[in-house]
Design brief:
By secondary structure, the protein is an alpha+beta fold. It has a single domain (9-121, 142-295), classed as Acyl-CoA thioesterase, double hotdog domain (Porin, Beta Barrel), CATH 2.40.160. It has helices at residues 9-17, 46-58, 144-148, 154-162, 200-210, 217-222; strands spanning 30-34, 66-74, 84-93, 97-106, 109-119, 165-169, 185-192, 233-243, 253-263, 266-275, 280-291. An 11-stranded antiparallel beta sheet has the order 1-3-4-5-2-8-11-10-9-7-6. Strand 9 (253-263) and strand 10 (266-275) form a beta hairpin. The relative contact order is 0.15.
Length: 296
């Protein structure tokens, strides 16, 4: 299949999240089928599989039950030229909580395994971390299109024009140059390029999609690395996300990340998502494999 430009990345995201029902097929699992928007890379973007797996699980619970956590392992690279089949096992439906196991398959082999938990919202104790203060407004920061749109290379054009999210760096971008601060910290504003449907589940899945974009960057920043590091091999190993409060993915979200550890060719990133007015809406964590020629 030949790579071609995406005319409307936001609409492509919405269509990607609209999974087919597998023609009514069901064994011990509910079956759904998702497609991939073509990319200059041969691998499926990890956030896509996370978002589609979340969507598949959400399709099997009562509307009143809201996803609050997902824990996933990336098992194999996904092939952008193949559809992805999602099998959802209904592990438990309790009085307040439901649990779902999701496997994503290509060519009969699992590429992702995840467990998601859902809850009927309830009253209880409330607190949250405070949002970082003194952050510049997203409108004052350059977009990826402004930073990369002039570069005639498939990867640069894909980031500049074909991602469904507008990502604006507060910390210094590390597309080509190392971060001069040398801190294991990253901060960006994110939102979809165009409005999304009002369905809250679409917004929850869209935030899962975006959560994978920059989560390992704090590791690279601390060690003076960039996204064009010669010989670098980087891949997500696992991903966790906790949705705390409802928010829209088509309004600006502050996404701040840090890295508490790197060891044994693995790095850990931890992130928090805040609305523009400081409400903590989600927490994320991911460990990735990071290999460099100087350690081989």
């Amino acid at each position: 299949m030949t790579y071609s430009a995406i005319d409307d990345p936001t609409q492509a995201l919405v269509e990607m999240l609209d999974l087919a029902d597998g023609g009514g097929a069901r064994t011990l699992e509910d079956i759904f089928v998702g497609h991939t928007v073509m990319s200059p890379r041969s691998r499926v973007y990890g956030g896509q599989v996370l978002a589609q797996a979340t969507t598949a699980a959400m399709r099997t619970v009562d509307e009143e039950r809201v996803v609050h956590s997902l824990h996933a392992y990336f098992l194999r690279p996904g092939d952008v030229s193949e559809p992805i089949t999602f099998g959802v096992e209904r592990i438990r439906d309790g009085r307040s909580f439901s649990a779902r196991r999701v496997h994503a398959y290509q060519r009969g082999r699992a590429i992702l395994s995840a467990i998601a938990s859902f809850q009927v919202p309830a009253a209880g104790l409330e607190h949250q971390d405070e949002a970082p203060r003194g952050m510049p407004d997203p409108e004052s920061l350059p977009s990826a299109r402004e930073l990369l749109g002039h570069i005639d290379a498939p990867e640069a054009r894909a980031v500049a024009y074909e991602r469904p999210f507008d990502i604006r760096y507060i910390t210094e971008p590390i597309y080509f140059r190392p971060d001069r601060s040398g801190e294991p910290y990253n901060a960006v504003w994110i939102k979809t390029l165009k409005p999304l449907p009002d369905d809250p589940d679409v917004h929850r899945a869209a935030l899962a999609y975006a959560s994978d974009y920059t989560l390992l960057e704090p590791v690279l920043r601390l060690h003076g690395k960039t996204w064009v590091e010669p010989g670098m091999n980087i891949a997500s190993l696992d991903h966790a996300m906790w949705w705390h409060r409802q928010a829209r993915a088509d309004e600006w979200v502050l996404y701040v990340q840090s890295s508490p550890n790197a060891s044994s060719a693995r790095g850990l990133g931890v992130g928090r998502m805040f609305t523009r007015d400081g409400v903590l809406i989600a927490t994320t964590a991911q460990e990735g494999m990071l290999r460099f020629p100087e350690f081989s």
